[in-house]
Amino acid sequence: MLRILLGEEPRLNHGLMEDAIETMVTTTQLLQKEIDKNQDPTHDFRKLEIWTRGLIVSLDELEQSCFAAGHFRKSVKAGYVDELSIQEQGEYGRYVYFYKNAFIRVFSILDKLGTVLNDLYDLNTSKVKAHFSYFTVLRQFKYLKTHEDLSRELEAIKDSYRNPMSVLRKRRNAEVHYMNSEMQDDLWQRHKGLNDKVELEDLDQHLDDLKQGLDMVCKTLAASYHYTNKLWSERGMKA
């Protein structure tokens, strides 16, 4: 949708994005077949289907926000806030909007996946923490010593993206709980030198961190749903 609004061609999925989406689509097909066959009297399959379709939409929205942030960043040439032209101020504001939208969505998707995994594998994470996150679910896998192959793979993915995810988490926390993350950067620079010009944050580094966050989400979704599809296939569920 955003690509069309920005005059670009629609996205063609490939690589990590394609793997994650196609794997989740396969899951919805498995669930739909079971619903058709058994009528799903408890609505458990229907619930998982709705949640999985929601994750597909959320991943699409995350990728679009990443793309839009990169699109508007290209028009920001100045290195300091005071040097931004009127046009650049508008483009920078649009970059910030989609950048913030994207890094908030990174953790939102992970937490939604945590809800799916908690329900799917009877982890009872809410007994540990009422409002749990994806990372709480990961710890619960290890604590219960259940589905250890999946647990190890998800932990390895988390560890391989530790640095960019730490950056994104701090910015998400600042945005959601304290103040706008870009204002926090400005305040820090003002503190260092009240009469100095305020330098724009490293937009390219921020976009790189965001791209790695998107990759981490794709790999995490793909690993979770590949494991689930394989497990169901071994139990006789076929798409």
From TrEMBL:
Residues 51-229 form the Cthe-2314-like HEPN domain. This is Cthe-2314-like HEPN domain-containing protein.
